[in-house]
Amino acid sequence: xxxxxxxxxxxxxxxxxxxQSYGSDSLKNDLKxxxxxxEYTEKVSQDVLGEIQDRQLMLRDAYPFDFDGDRLQFKGTSxxxxxxxxxxxxxxxxxxxxxQRCEQFETITMKAASQxxxxxxxxxxxxxRSEQTPEYSVLLDRVVALIPDLGKRFRDEAPDGGDxxxxxLVVKSFADKKFPRFVALGNCATGxxxxxxxxxxxxxxxxxxxxxxxxxxxxxxxxxxxFIMSEEWRLSxxxxxxxxxxxxxxxxxxxDSTDAAAAWLDSTRxxxxxxxxx
Length: 278
Hints:
By secondary structure, this protein is of the alpha/beta class. The protein has 2 domains: 4-76, Arc Repressor Mutant, subunit A (Orthogonal Bundle); 97-255, 3-Layer(aba) Sandwich (Trna Endonuclease, Chain: A, domain 1). The protein has 11 helices and 8 strands. It has helices at 4-18, 24-34, 42-59, 81-90, 98-117, 136-146, 204-208, 231-237, 247-253, 259-266, 269-273; strands at 22-23, 65-67, 71-74, 120-123, 168-172, 182-188, 218-224, 242-245. α8 (231-237) links the parallel β7 and β8 (242-245). α1 packs across α3 and α2 crosses α3. It is elongated, with a radius of gyration of 21 Å.
């Protein structure tokens, strides 16, 4: 049997897709049909409802559903980072393009990290090319504008056409704009199977080598995923200088997704109804 958290995810995703309320009786019937008779007990459905209740209590207005202890009701807007992360967590990989995995998820994570840490932020992961950053040299110049102590950039091209191994940068300076300042570098991973091998694919020292001087600031790193991490999973990616952002933490600090993320999510409604409980 799948974990309680996964079943709760599917209940939420199907409730959004159907645009109808979902009650405890429906949950019991669906679980009985999906789970082996030996595994199903009344406690399973109670645990799922308890998980949903905990999520609502934690996220409050940022939670995209109303739940009264028995019935789950979608609030009515697909422009929710929580719903977008549900889609990244549950939909088949072939329905999730790089635009969602990279640009959209990293942009939402950037907003959450900026709200949590404070300061200015920018997305530095590939694909980085845009109207604002037509060349990699422009991206690095924008980094220097945030952290002047870095001096001149040493690179004009991205390594192997990709990036420096990091996806998000957050910088918080004092009013005097002098060192030391606070700097956070973030990695993002969306795959349910390959996230465990991700995070710090390259050490921060590699990215700072693109510039003539050291950042002279206090540095931490963070790791973001679109699903809810268990305590064991968080421990596997945490350290004294690294913290984790999962779906609930992202939604807490950036409850709204982008228009592009909401449009993609709406296009997957039929597939969402086919996501299995088990």
